[in-house]
Write a structure and sequence with these properties.
- The chain is mainly beta.
- Among the domains are: 30-141, no CATH class; 358-509, Immunoglobulin-like (Sandwich), CATH 2.60.40.
- Residues 1-30 have low confidence and may be disordered.
């Protein structure tokens, strides 16, 4: 082969390698992009940090990714997908405790599996292999950190290893997870820090001391000071009247009751003096949420307002360059410049809904429904109706809507046609509104359970002005029993009833004395 031909062949071969390398790199980068859960038309999927949809919205619920895995719900069961959206652990697990979320920590996840004889607790790996069966209740065992998981038995703290074996008995009634190789244990008058072999690294009087973050922990004895992981004092804060916090992103929050929150650096000097109402969690990725008036914005560590205040609420903090926010009652994700990469679609509850993009069914259940009529989050609008001059409860069976993201529903209108503002009672923001049906004895009987009351502060009301109205999604059912239905709203000193309709249900839906209220 001549030299020119050899050079052309070499050039062509190198070009092919570059193309293959470029494709592989792009594919690798795409797989490595962080993913964030979204919901569209009642189904959940994932976008990347540019807002591109990576996993189609097809799941009934989805949690954020942890260690390359995300828990997804199909019907009532949980499984896991990888970062390509493929189901790698089929949905077969249940979750009975809402305080424990299905995340992987150090390669293991705590799940529950229902058998014919009951529910068993498992720790599984990413290949759905059982690491060990836990004999303890779900709430007793925490996630793994530094090869140890916290376990609480009879008001005493233990730690287990990844085989489920108890390797540390502490004799302490209180204790936290391991953080940066150390765990904090305390009683009412003393605190110790131990390593993963149960060696005591440091001991202090009192309680309320901090966990280790970025190599430092806060000690609050008479004065505030920070220690390193050898238990040695690093620096003492200068203002004993302030309340200090753990370090995040190189700074720690310092709170003054009169002036607000500021931040100190690792020498104890202020980089931002106390003046802000700060979102819990402080700085992450050089962004901190601050409340200015009634709106949230973001500052950086140079104390510059880098995202102007305009958000109603912040969900957590910036992670992988993205933060979840709420603005004008719509949730979305923003980048570090405050620009949206994704935002949920507006509610169409008040208008005609196109249901073609929803995957809906008619609800069939064999138990009463619980506390599902939100009041204060379902905002009052102004309109004009021809139904009369009173407060009215009108069920429209001709215009279908969406109930609980999964079922068909009728529209239920609450309309104030009086000339005065009417106060609508609620319980924790939910209307005292129930659906009723005629039982086999010909008597109206509840098929809904009112919202639970946790304390006296749960009871309240909201104002509906003249010509104000709300629209609620009211489920209709399928079942074996044909009967009449209506809705009943409890007011301060009376009840308000809707018009009736004929439909189907199952007899088990009737509320009885045996119906659990919790």
């Amino acid at each position: 082969m001549t030299l020119p031909n050899l050079m052309r062949s070499a050039t062509f071969f190198i070009s092919i390698l570059l193309i293959l390398f470029s494709c592989t790199t792009r594919e690798h980068d795409q797989k490595k992009r962080p993913l964030f859960p979204i919901k569209e038309y009642g189904k959940w999927g994932f976008i990347d940090d540019t807002g591109a949809k990576v996993v189609a919205c097809k799941f009934d619920y989805a949690y954020p990714f942890s260690e390359g895995m995300a828990a997804i719900q199909v019907d009532s069961l949980w499984g896991f997908i990888d970062e390509t959206g493929e189901i790698v652990i089929p949905p077969k697990y249940i979750t009975t405790d809402s305080k424990h979320f299905p995340f992987f920590y150090e390669g293991l996840c705590h799940v529950e599996f229902k058998t014919d004889t009951g529910v068993i607790n498992l720790f599984i790996d990413k290949h759905d292999k059982v690491a060990f069966v836990s004999p303890y209740e779900y709430w007793q065992t925490g996630p793994f950190h530094d090869g140890r998981a916290r376990l609480e038995i009879n008001e005493e703290i233990y730690y287990i290893n990844k085989s489920g074996k108890i390797v540390i008995r502490t004799y302490f009634p209180y204790g936290g997870h391991f953080s940066e190789g150390l765990a904090k244990l305390w009683t009412g008058d003393s605190t110790i820090y131990i390593d993963t072999t149960c060696n005591v690294v440091a001991a202090f009087s009192g309680m309320g001391h901090g966990d280790f973050h970025e190599g430092l922990a806060l000690i609050t004895n008479d004065q505030n000071y920070y220690i390193d992981k050898a238990g040695k004092r690093v620096f003492t804060t200068f203002d004993y009247g302030l309340v200090y916090d753990d370090f995040n992103d190189g700074v720690a929050a310092a709170y003054d009751r009169g002036d607000g929150t500021g931040f100190i650096d690792r020498t104890g000097n202020f980089v931002i003096h106390p003046k802000y109402d700060v979102k819990y969690g402080g700085f992450h990725e050089d962004r901190c949420g601050v409340l200015i008036g009634d709106a949230w914005g973001f500052i950086n560590k140079k104390d510059s307002m880098v995202i102007a205040p305009r958000f109603d609420y912040l969900f957590g903090w910036f992670t992988n360059g993205v933060c979840e926010v709420e603005e004008n009652y719509l949730r979305g994700y923003i980048d570090k410049n405050g620009e949206y990469i994704w935002r949920e679609q507006p509610s169409e509850q008040y208008g005609k809904r196109d249901l073609s993009r929803w995957d809906l069914d008619t609800l069939e259940t064999r138990q009463p429904l619980f506390e599902h009529f939100d009041g204060y989050l379902n905002f009052v609008k102004q309109g004009a109706f021809r139904y009369g001059t009173q407060l009215s409860l009108i069920l429209d069976t001709t215009d279908l809507t969406v109930f609980k993201d999964r079922y068909f529903g009728y529209k239920l209108y609450l309309i104030n046609q009086t000339n005065a503002t009417v106060k609508i009672p609620d319980r924790d923001g939910r209307l005292k509104l129930v659906q009723q049906a005629v039982n086999p004895q010909g008597v109206w009987q509840d098929i809904d359970v009112l919202a639970r009351i946790f304390c006296g502060n749960s009871l309240g009301d909201y104002a509906m002005p003249p010509a104000g109205y709300q629209v609620f999604a009211a489920p209709f059912f399928k079942g074996s029993y044909k009967t009449k239905f209506r809705f009943k709203l409890y007011l301060e000193e009376s009840e308000l009833y809707s018009n009736t309709y004929t439909g189907y249900m199952n007899p088990e839906q009737f509320v009885t004395e045996e119906t659990p209220l919790w």
